[in-house]
Specification:
five-stranded antiparallel sheet, 27 strands, 2 domains, 20% helix, single chain
């Protein structure tokens, strides 16, 4: 009988078989592990893709809601005075965000909007705040082509809704002034705010020259006629109030053929007036007996000329009691002998502001020259309540965050 030895071919074949089976087992394990990992990675990639799509849907939802809210506020379908607003903004065809039922009003006049987007099993939630844009870009003194300020002028800011007789020490630090082309400050000019440097029609940033330091900020072109004195909302007002039956000219006997010449002491009361010229004779005084709730509004299609030692005075001292809107290129020369309060808006005209006292309010013109007549320091207080008064009907998203 023969015994198997190490040299027996059958023994070698058994060992090879065992090794092959072991290798196949290891290879199978590796293949299974790789398959599992690949499947997990593919599943993760798919979920990430859906999560990103859900986020896009949530973004679409808040943008859609803000656009719809703008329309409803403009039409009156939604009242801006409410704390909460019940709406029904459902997703248009092709979008997968949940219906938006409630929008919250914020203390600053803005709105909070939340939208939930879906894609497969993924969900994303986005919250935004939106607010109407300030048409005057928070600029209190603006000259489209130029703003020139002579020596010894200090500009501060306040809010006439809460402060009636401001002094420099209570300034809110928001006294922004600016131009799209050129800003020039003579010695001893101080701005408690920033100098806004817009752009001209070619995209060139406005130049700035000053003897004393001032904080500047470059920005896009500032709309020189945001209220639309020509071709906009104010233009409609000029057309409407130029008609005799729509203005209050007949209540002030000094207005003749839409022209007002002020002589001696006169008083104009609350109402809307249409004038083709406003002229102050020597030592004339025009008292504005009005309030912010019932102001004097003047649509002026011509020049405003004040001779020295004249006064254009708001009796309650609050700038929102007087509005002067101009749609012409005729100069507005304002040189009151005492304090002046009001809103001067003449985007196509040069404004020469030559006070012998303090100025309160907002001044917008094509070119603005501030030339104080007093030898002492002249103070200008930008009234922030006037800037807040003119807001766009369109809402803009001011902040956003992803909640989920």
């Amino acid at each position: 009988m023969k015994s198997a030895t190490a040299a027996d071919p059958r023994g070698r074949e058994g060992i090879v078989m065992v090794i092959a089976l072991l290798l196949l087992g290891v290879l199978g394990f590796l293949v299974l592990t790789l398959a599992r990992n690949t499947s997990s990675e593919l599943a993760g990639a798919g979920f990430y893709r859906h999560q990103r799509a859900a986020l896009y849907q949530a973004h679409a939802g808040v943008h859609y809601a803000v656009a719809r809210l703008s329309q409803d506020l403009a039409s009156g379908a939604v009242s801006g005075s409410s704390v909460t607003h019940s709406v029904n903004y459902t997703a248009p065809s092709g979008f997968t965000f949940d219906p938006i039922r409630t929008i919250f009003g914020l203390p600053d006049g803005g709105y909070a909007v939340t939208a939930t987007g879906h894609s497969s099993s993924a969900v994303a939630v986005v919250e935004v705040t939106a607010a109407p844009l300030n048409l005057l870009t928070q600029v209190g003194i603006f000259g489209d082509s130029a703003l020139d300020v002579q020596p010894d002028v200090e500009v501060y800011s306040y809010d006439s809704r809460t402060t009636t007789n401001p002094v420099p020490s209570v300034s809110t630090g928001e006294a922004t002034v600016g131009s799209n082309e050129d800003v020039g400050f003579q010695p001893r000019v101080m701005i408690d705010g920033i100098v806004a440097l817009g752009q001209d029609l070619s995209g060139q940033t406005a130049s700035f020259s000053a003897h004393d330091p001032a904080e500047t900020e470059e920005m896009e072109r500032i709309n020189p006629d945001p209220l639309g004195a020509v071709g906009g909302g104010l233009a409609v007002g000029f057309t409407y109030y130029s008609q005799t039956s729509h203005n209050h000219n007949s209540t002030f006997s000094a207005i003749k053929n839409n022209r007002l010449e002020v002589s001696g002491n006169m008083t104009i009361t609350s109402g809307v007036y249409y004038l083709t010229s406003l002229t102050f004779r020597s030592k004339a005084k025009l008292a504005v007996a009005a309030t912010p709730q019932s102001p004097v509004v003047i649509f002026l299609s011509g020049p405003l000329t004040m001779q020295p030692n004249t006064d254009f005075n708001v009796t309650d001292g609050r700038p929102p009691s007087l509005f002067v809107f101009s749609n012409s290129s005729s100069e507005l020369r304002v040189q009151p002998n005492s304090d002046f309060s009001g809103f001067l808006y003449a985007p196509y005209a040069d404004i020469k502001l030559q006070p012998n006292g303090r100025v309160f309010g907002v001044v917008w013109g094509h070119r603005v020259d501030i030339q104080p007549q007093s030898k002492d320091t002249s103070y200008i207080f930008v009234d922030m309540s006037l800037l807040d008064r003119f807001r766009s009907r369109q809402l803009a998203i001011t902040d956003w965050r992803q909640l989920w």
